[in-house]
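Hey all, sorry for the wall of text incoming. These are the two entities for the joint prediction.
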Amino acid sequence: MKTILDKEQLHLTILRLAHQLLENNISLADVVFIGIQPRGVQVGSKLIAAIGQIAPFEKLQYGILDITFYRDDVRDELHVANTTHIPFSIEGKKVVLIDDVLYTGRTIRAALDAIQDFGRPQKVELCVLVDRRFNRELPIQPDYCGKAIDSVISQKVKVEWDKEAVVLY
Amino acid sequence: MQLSTKHLLGIKDLTREDISLILSTATQFKEVLQRSVKKVPSLRDVTIVNLFYENSTRTRISFELAEKRLGADTINFSASASSVTKGETLLDTVNNILSMKVDMVVLRHSASGAPHFLAKHIPAAIINAGDGINEHPTQALLDALSIQEKLGSLEGKKIVLVGDIMHSRVALSNIYLLNKMGAEVMVAGPPTLIPKYIKEALNVKVEYDIKKALAWCDVANVLRIQLERQNQVLFSSLREYNLAFGISKKLLDSLKKEIVIMHPGPINRGVEIDSDVADCNQSIILQQVENGVAVRMAALYLLAGNKTNG
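and here's what came out:
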């Protein structure tokens, strides 16, 4: 087991991502944040809290999206669905998808499909806490990345929120 | 997590966990049905045939909608417009359809046990959409979802099934389901329409006085008199049945509390339920229909994704 980000690094990383998101968006009025169920939601809420602290005057729109019904392996393995809650329109908005670990890219592929069913965004960006590069099975790359790591398929990356650390098994 | 069965033949075969899984999945599908695009691509590689050997409005339409909203390809078959009228058997008909590469079968049949018979002979997953006087599992599931939405949970709730218990598959499926989920069940109606040993066999309360039954319950699920299945006279007239067991506004107003009124449809207004009761705001009859699509999407999705298939 190897710690990729400890408590302090995790905190700093989230803070940096929040700053980068603010830096790239002069106004957040046309930006919506969507955390991907189940684990992207925790990253999302931390990130939203951090942005809220840096820019308390901004009204942040944050939704959660479950991609179970859009998976490409529905018939191979049964996945239990989680809640989707997007209480705003994404039509013409800039959507920032948030997830914990970017690995094969299949979850993001499904999320891109799912987003289309809610409207036509002006732009979609991807923000991840950990990028397992060289493991991609689809041409998908993050726009905001907490930490890029090299890992092999047999390894597992896990964000442990109770211990506030990211570890590699 | 997955269902413990390959087919959905009846609530009798399901575990409490299966029922909870179907209901929680249905809740997620309800959210999908609120979106501007009410469709997900989960079953786009699945072909489903709806075999209806008996007439149906709600069940057939909602199964078809559920299938389409999951992205599945569907074929509709009704016995009256097919070679069944030329003498083809059920098994032959199904085998012919399956040879055209169909993955799942939704079956309604007037013979009890027809889907169980098919399940023994064909490899496809089967969903029972009502078989004779046996079971109608998706109806019980959508009733459960409707009660759960209205009252928060099923555990400890008091539900009375009113009317033709003897010939109602909705009643049997509801009894199995409600018992498994920890609700209290009572059946009420004329003695001729309630099976003699139902109290011992299915662990339900029996009440012949409609007013006492309504005073006891939180929810009254009013069932249609299944005249097409009654081959002997079991009560003198529909009018007399209405006077003795019909749910009227006056009867409801005489209760000290507000109960929830349900009906699986089709309604015979003025027989088992009066018009003003069916349309009052205690009635959740149309919510039941709405939940039907979500529950059937959940059942189809969970069965198609079940690894034990194929």
